[in-house]
């Protein structure tokens, strides 16, 4: 099931965990974890690559979504 979050439809499954067990991160916290700028996180959220929920004018990103994104984005180096 996809979740509509603001401007985009994200692929985050709504029934993975009970909401009281989900840890949500702010955009600034995600930027710190990923070691990128907050603008990069906003771009990932708006493009739908990083699922988030909108709380007022702010976004909250599930911690698991950040871990999943980083795991899927990992580039391995093959030895020749």
| Helicity, as a percent range | 25-40%
Distance between the termini: 41 Å
How many strand segments?
5
Task: State the shape.
Answer: globular
| Spatial extent as radius of gyration | 13 Å
What's the order of the H and E elements?
Answer: EEEHHEEH
Strand order of the largest sheet: 3-5-4
- The overall pLDDT average reads 83
**Main β-sheet: number of strands, strand sense, barrel status?**
3 strands, antiparallel
- Beta-strand level of the residues, as a percent range? 15-25%
Taking pLDDT < 50 over at least 5 consecutive residues as the criterion, the unreliable ranges are: 1-12
Number of helices: 3
Structural class: alpha+beta
Pfam families: HTH_17
Domain Helix-turn-helix: 24-72
Organism: Streptomyces inhibens
Protein name: Helix-turn-helix domain-containing protein
Notes on the protein architecture:
The chain has a domain at 24-75. The chain has helices at residues 27-34, 38-47, 63-73; strands spanning 3-5, 8-10, 24-26, 53-55, 58-62. The protein is globular, with a radius of gyration of 13 Å. The chain is 36% helix and 21% strand. The N and C termini lie far apart (41 Å). 18% of the residues are buried. Strand 4 (53-55) and strand 5 (58-62) form a beta hairpin. It is α+β, with helices and mostly antiparallel strands and 80 residues long. This is Helix-turn-helix domain-containing protein. Residues 24-72 form the Helix-turn-helix domain. One of its GO terms (molecular function) is DNA binding.
Features:
single chain, 80 residues, alpha+beta, 3-stranded antiparallel sheet, two-stranded antiparallel sheet, 3 helices, 36% helix, disordered N terminus
């Amino acid at each position: 099931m996809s979740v509509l979050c603001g401007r985009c439809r994200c692929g985050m499954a709504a029934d993975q965990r009970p909401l009281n067990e989900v840890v949500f991160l702010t955009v600034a916290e995600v930027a710190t974890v990923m070691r990128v700028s907050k603008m990069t996180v906003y771009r990932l959220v708006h493009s739908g690559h990083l699922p988030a929920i909108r709380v007022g004018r702010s976004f909250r990103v599930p911690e698991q979504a950040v871990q999943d994104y980083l795991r899927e984005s990992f580039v391995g180096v093959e030895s020749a």
